[in-house]
Amino acid sequence: MDFERESSSDEEMIEDLEEIKELFPIRGGRVMKERIDHVHHLSDAEFVKRFRLSKECFHRLLSEVEENIKPRTERNSAIFASNRLLLTLRFFATGNMLLAVADFCGVSEAAASQIVKLVAIAIANLRPQYCKMPEGDDIGKAQRSFYNIARFPLVIGTIDCTHVRIQSPGGDQAENFRNRKGYFSFNVQTVSDANLKILDIVARWPGSTHDQTIFNNSSIRNRFEQGHFGNGILLGDSGYRNTNYLLTPLVAPRTEAERLYNEAQIRTRNVVERQYGVWKRRFQVLRLEMRVATERIQPIIVSTAVIHNICVDMKEPLNIIN
User: How far apart are CA 8 and CA 11, in angstroms?
Assistant: First the structure.
């Protein structure tokens, strides 16, 4: 999954929007919104409260994407890469309408929209680096980590799907996005490790799509079918079909051994549910109704997964303030 890179055209549009705003303000004379240096202005605790990650984690993320999101020039009060990343993180953290985020960061609403698009694509393109299944010796390490939870052997990941609410996309295909609970969404599949990292993510299916259909059409299924992970297995809930590499709970356990199997399976599989909880608490945009164009939603979802994994790597606190 490689998101389309439109950094040049997006950059030109951001600069043009800011130049038009300055030359032709809606009311009165030329208006320059104040852009506060939040990194230096806020304490560490206040920074985490507003952007959902530490300053240290912010600087690491900035170093990864700066070249792809920085302005081409410094003319016309250019919006620097750090401010672009902060604006996008603020949108992810609050799920607010773009106008509120734009005002917070001192840019126009139109520029904020283009910045979120640009930054989300830049971060999402880090997915192969930060969201990857274990290979080689890491398979054994993953199995030991899961075994320590409830003594269930050979597990390298737990799989499930979660719904990310969106506004109605409109058009003839809109009803495809209405899920069984009655609201519009993307149905997002992830595989979690024992430390709540997202090992694999599929974020392109409309909300009405069944979990098993998403798995059947995913690259992760093909890799298991081809024996890519040796004796490694996944754990899933009863929404998936039981196979030799994806184990689900027994429907009606009768013996003590079957009950113990279900208990261990459910306790181990619960990791993916906890991962969803932490991921969505950190980024409210995943919990509220996302009000952006449908084609922009996938990179937003994937980019939050990348940031989540960076936070796990850097041992950021999991108990994010709601």
Answer: 5
pTM above 0.85, yes or no: yes
Report pLDDT digits (tens) over 100-122. Answer: 888 888 888 899 999 999 999 99
For the record, the structure tokens of 176 come out as 């495809």
**Residues contacting 173, CB < 8 A, separation 6+:** 206
> Phi first, then psi: what are they for 259, rounded to 5°?
-65, -40
pLDDT tens, residue by residue, 169-199: 999 999 999 999 999 999 999 999 999 999 9
Query: Containing H/E element for 220?
Result: helix 219-225
Cβ within 8 Å of residue 196, ≥6 positions away: 271, 274, 275, 278, 312, 318
Helix ranges restricted to H, 80-218: 81-94, 98-105, 109-124, 127-130, 137-150, 211-216
Task: Look up residue 272 and give its two tokens.
Answer: 């993916």
Structure tokens at 109: 């609403």
Q: Which DSSP state fits 174?
A: G
